[in-house]
Amino acid sequence: MSAFESVSRGLQEALDFANGELAGAKVHEVSVAKVDVAEVRQKTGLSQAEFAKSIGVAKGTLLNWEHGRRQPTGPAQVLLALIARQPSVVQDLLRGA
Question: Which keywords, in A-to-Z order, does the entry hold (predicted)?
Fold first, then answer.
C-alpha cells in the first residue's frame, strides 16, 4: 500500500468514525483519576507560581484548578496524576535537561 493510499484510508476511517460508523475503528479510552491539584502542588514544595511554570501553565489556570472553578483535562490531567504519584518527577526531569 502506498503512503497516499494509507493516508486516504486513515482519513476515511476518521470520517466514518465522526459519522458514527464504528466498524473497523479502534477507539482507545484512557481513564485518569481526578487529583486534588492544591495537594499535588503542596507535595512538590513549590509555590503556585513555581509549580505553574514547572508544568507549563499560567498561574491563573493553576488557581482556577486549585479553587475548583475548572478541572484539568487531557495531558494536564495525566501530568498531575503522575506528579501525585511521584512529586519530584518534574524537578528531576528539569534538572536533567
Answer: DNA-binding, Transcription, Transcription regulation
CA dihedral 62→63→67→71, nearest 10 degrees, is -30
Architecture of domain 37-96: Orthogonal Bundle (1.10)
Whether the pTM exceeds 0.90: the reply is: no
Which three cell numbers, joined as nine digits, stand for 65?
A: 484548578
CA 89 to chain centre: 15
Average pLDDT per block of 10 residues along the chain, 97 residues long: 85 84 72 90 94 95 96 92 90 76
Between the alpha carbon of residue 71 and those of residues 27, 35, 74, 77, the distances in Å are: 24, 9, 10, 8
